[in-house]
């Protein structure tokens, strides 16, 4: 996994979220923290799953998710990394975003140069395998009220609005997709 290629894509999401806790953090310092997170076992294949789309050897899209009950473990990575960084006045504490009993798609980002080419759909189509591997039959996500393009994509992929929630300073629709019974993997 190439963390330095993943970090700028994830940073696109942080920029869109306009989190007040990040407005005084220099961009390069935030990228260092995100890069460090994507080098941890927790983010790559531990509590969470990182899926990438590549074109010509470059990461052009990334999806990051985990079973909702592992949210605290996953969020602790960023809290610990920001606590160690002088660029952060205090450790970054994330709002809870998951609903009970779901595999949560925390982040989906596609390089601006590759948007509109089906990469987001491709990443979304891959997620049920990971959710079922983690014994989950529902995938959940949050989409900003101010992101109608993403909302349309999720609706086309079968996600339905199940509620709303405030994350940072923005309102989000919580959406879910029923994917059926988890696959039983023989040991």
From TrEMBL:
Q: Name one GO molecular function term.
A: N-acetyltransferase activity
- A Pfam match: Acetyltransf_1
**This protein's record includes keyword Hydrolase:** no
Task: Domain (N-acetyltransferase): give its ranges.
Answer: 1-180
Keywords assigned by UniProt, alphabetized: Transferase
> What is the name of this protein?
GNAT family acetyltransferase
Q: Write down the species.
A: Levilactobacillus koreensis
Ranked from the top, the taxonomy reads: Bacteria, Bacillati, Bacillota, Bacilli, Lactobacillales
């Amino acid at each position: 996994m190439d963390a330095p290629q993943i970090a700028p894509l994830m940073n696109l999401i942080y920029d869109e979220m306009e989190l007040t806790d990040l407005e005084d953090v220099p961009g390069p310092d935030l990228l260092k923290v995100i890069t460090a997170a994507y080098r941890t076992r927790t983010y790559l294949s531990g509590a969470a799953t990182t899926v990438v789309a590549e074109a010509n050897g470059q990461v052009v899209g990334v999806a990051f998710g985990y079973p909702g009950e592992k949210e605290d473990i996953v969020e602790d990575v960023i809290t610990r990394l920001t606590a160690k960084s002088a660029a952060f006045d205090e450790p970054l504490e994330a709002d809870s975003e998951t609903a009970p009993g779901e595999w949560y798609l925390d982040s989906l980002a596609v390089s601006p140069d590759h948007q509109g080419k089906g990469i987001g759909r491709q990443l979304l189509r891959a997620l049920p395998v990971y959710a079922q591997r983690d014994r989950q039959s529902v995938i959940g996500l949050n989409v900003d009220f101010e992101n109608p393009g993403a909302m349309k994509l999720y609706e086309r992929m079968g996600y339905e609005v199940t509620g709303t929630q405030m994350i940072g300073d923005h309102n989000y629709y919580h959406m879910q997709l029923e994917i059926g019974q988890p696959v039983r993997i023989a040991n």
